[in-house]
Every structure is written in structure tokens, then in C-alpha cells.
Known about the structure:
Rossmann fold; DNA polymerase, domain 1; alpha/beta; globular
Amino acid sequence: MIWVDHREINSGVVEALEADGFEILVKTLPAGDYVVDNRVFIERKTTKDFIRSIIDGRLFGQAAKLKRFGNNQLFIIEGLNPGLSSGINQRAVEGAIISLAVSWKLPILYCDCPRHTASIIGLIHAQITKRAETFKQKTYWKKKSSNGELQKKNILESMPMIGPHLANELLNNFGSLNKIFEASTDELKNIPGIGQKKAEKIKWMLKENRSTYNIN
């Protein structure tokens, strides 16, 4: 599954992904333009938009928002090398790229066109899906387990922003997956280690993953 922000509908990337047979879900994303298999958040920018985002100051705000979600995030810059574009000092462009890569630890991939971008997103999907199959994660979650608590914990830990400690806290406080997925933002923020902002992000993640794990 590849989630796509509604603003990307006419980018040409969505059409190419659908032509390649990928399942696409269009919605308003909290960060980035594409989310691959709920694991990789991608911010896509054309060269012109990348330059504009440096000039108007949006770039690092978007980087900060991207870093708040999941464990894997990256930028895709589509088009000519932004360092060769006119309208801005080349050193400013290079400085922004270095800052994203070094300070923000956000990888940057360069693509020629929407078709190329779709191909790269497809390769990312293939790699993480293959990894999941290797460890048989989805099969493991769907099988009946002799240890129900371990199964619940594994499901929670598989989601971004929920590690072993927080998974235990959630289970200790709510008791069941159903109650965790139904918990309100106010209920979540009362869990040790979760504040208002993190509660809002976790609530969004739980909502988006409910059908994936057949939580009724």
C-alpha cells in the first residue's frame, strides 16, 4: 500500500504508480507526500518547488514535520540539479542540501521526472516488502499465537513511534488492542512518556493501521 497526499494527484507520479500496479490510497497526510507501506515517509519536490521552499522558509519546517513521523524519511528532488537553477545563490542551495543530509539526517534522492520518481518509490516498496516477507511479520501476526500478550506487543511495536517500552505501557493501561485503538487523544496523552503532540500522532497511526491488523 502506498499512501499519497491529495496534493500529489496531478503530479504524474500517482498515474505512473497505478500503471505499475501499486495499490494507492489518496488522503491528507500529516507529513510528506508519500508513505510507503506505513514505514517510509517521502517528501517530493520538483526543482522549482525546492528552490521556492528555501526562499520562503518552508523547507526546514517540512523537514521537522517529516522527522516526527516514523523511523525512515527521505526527500526526493525531481528535475534538474537544483544547484544549476537560477534565481538563488548556488551556495545557498548547496547549504540547504547539506543541512538536510547532515543536520536533519534526511537522505536525498534525485529523479529526472515523475516516471523516474514512481520507479524509485516502487523500488523502496519492493525492498521493505521483501524484508517483511523475510521475517514473516504479517504471517506471524495473523497466526494464532500461544502467547497472546506477545502477539499484541509485536503488533504495537511494528508501528512507528511505538517501541517496546511504550507498547508495554499501552497494554498495561488499556489491557487490549481494541481499547488501545479506540483510545482518545486525551486518554493516550495520560500514558507516561506521551504528551499532547505525540498522542495526536499515535492516534493518527492507530486509526490508519486498524484495518491492517483486523482490529474490530
